[in-house]
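In keeping with the milestone schedule agreed at the kick-off meeting, the structural modelling team has produced records for the first pair of proteins. Each record is given below as a sequence line and a structure-token line. The laboratory manager (R.T.) confirmed that both were archived under the project's standard naming scheme.
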Amino acid sequence: MAHSQTENTMKSTDLIRKYFDVFHARDREAAYAMLSDDFTFSSPLDNKIDKKAYFERCWPNGDHLSAFEIEKVFGEGDEVFVTYSCAQSDGTRFRNTEFFRTEAGRLTQVEVYFGSETAADGQEAELRALLAEVSAATRAKDAAAIVARYTADVLAFDVVEPLQYRGSDEVRRRAQEWLVSWRGPIEFEMRDLVISVSGESAFCHSLNHVAGTKTDGGAVDMWWRATTGFGKRDGEWVVTHLHSSVPFDMETGKASVTLKPEAEFT
């Protein structure tokens, strides 16, 4: 009996280690095959979501990991605890413990317990990942991907007319017009990003930068101020509000589009 228990433990721990290898390799197809049809995933941010929701909501977060290390594995029969540490592409680090159940060579249940992170920290990581997706879509000139996580009724205050407009379709249309006005690649970054989370609402502010060459040959190298509002819809963060602005010169009444953060904070 003891030998059988030990053998089951070894099989379970080997399965978990293999799953983490697959996860870190971003092999979605292999990972999908390792989860049972009745698989559930829980964390401080998720309550027993199913296999489909896990791959839609949680799997993409692994795209932003730059380093991953298993620190400890402890198993007993079909149950395994794993503690690991990670580094994200933005330089932040976190440490979690996960509890697994296995059956017939597949994972049936995962429960995640945040370590040094609080639930708010975890949600901030989700929001940073969302903004990283938007930034990547901007550099890729993909208007549809930019608004993929925007609500249908998102409200936008832009740096160009009108004073305000509403709707993800309109944001996408205006983004597409802007994107095709560039010749070659676009440089885009968000600096000094600060995120505040409260319940199912969140805001962030940053200094955003774009540089490149327009189709008319003109060079652009511009910074502006950006604030983004978020809300939780069906357990997922989405963008509900956009606000971009630049200061203006009181004497000339013209927008100050040549300011740079280095000059502002020295």
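The second protein of the pair:
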Amino acid sequence: MLRFLLMAILLTFALRMVSRLADEFMRGMRGEGGGSRPSVPQRGVQMVRDPVCGTFVVPERAVSIVEGRERIHFCSTACRDKYRARTA
């Protein structure tokens, strides 16, 4: 009897999970989003390349220095320090 009860509970949870999965899939196909994932931006974001390691970074979040009239962007302070050591 206990085995039957546990199997019934397990089957109920499994069916509910499959139902929710199918519902979320259909909502996604209709474009209703609402999930926890961020939406895809409608336009691209301009990025710059770190001259030391080659990583692309968003200029607003980058560590930057000004050399002459040029602003140079880095992914981290470590890359900035390596660049300064090479050019010094």
